[in-house]
Amino acid sequence: MAIKIISDCGKINALLFKNENVGLPMTLFLSISIDLDELEFQNETEETCIQLDFIKIHFKSFSDLQNKEFEFPINPEDGYIDGSVYLDSQHIPVDVTKISFCSFDGDNIKAKIFGIVLFDNCGYKDPNQEFDLETTLRFENILIPPDIISPSEQNLDIAKNKLSEFFNVIELSEPIIENNEFRDAIVFHKSI
């Protein structure tokens, strides 16, 4: 049974991240969350989203993404997007092969996303499902997690200087400390 994947809106964020254990230097990654319309799956009505993390694209401003197309390998090849959709109480892998960014209005960017939901990875008899969806992504924030820079008032200037190596911070608000329901982090929002 094919599910109908429809989306009108989503969010785009960025995360400053490094992992010395795997040799990953400090990198600014994109994260995209695409809200899906309510859908039927395994005889249940589900409200969910497609979550795409660790999207490695070089950009210094969100306007740099406008009218650009990026192709990605599939998991486990280096450079793949860590993607999933939460259905039937589990994360079902999603491979994204291409993202085409379109117009950017300063707060939102239109995007076309091409991929496949891998039902067979989770033992479902449903066939894997290719999708291409169009959505408008709303910029939320750029986050620096506490394992990169400890979230304290005295570290806000350090965070701003560090992020300026990767992003044009003049486009952003002054950094603040926010709790994202799990832990405090240093966060930058879009400048008004």
Order of helices and strands: EEEEEEEEEEHEE
Low confidence ranges: none
Strands of the largest sheet, in order across it? 1-2-5-7-8-9-10
Question: What is the arithmetic mean of pLDDT?
Answer: 92
Keyword list:
192 residues, two-stranded antiparallel ribbon, seven-stranded mixed beta barrel, mainly beta
List the helices and strands and how they pair.
Blueprint: E1 9-19, E2 24-35, E3 39-41, E4 44-46, E5 49-55, E6 69-71, E7 82-87, E8 90-104, E9 108-117, E10 129-144, H1 156-163, E11 176-179, E12 184-189
Walkthrough of the structure:
With 192 residues, this protein is mostly beta strands. It has one helix and twelve strands; from the N terminus they run ββββββββββαββ. It has one helix at 156-163, and strands spanning 9-19, 24-35, 39-41, 44-46, 49-55, 69-71, 82-87, 90-104, 108-117, 129-144, 176-179, 184-189. The strands form two sheets. Strands 1-2-5-7-8-9-10 form a seven-stranded mixed beta barrel. A two-stranded antiparallel ribbon has the order 3-4. Strand 7 (82-87) and strand 8 form a beta hairpin. The longest helix is centred in the last third of the chain and has 8 residues, at 156-163.
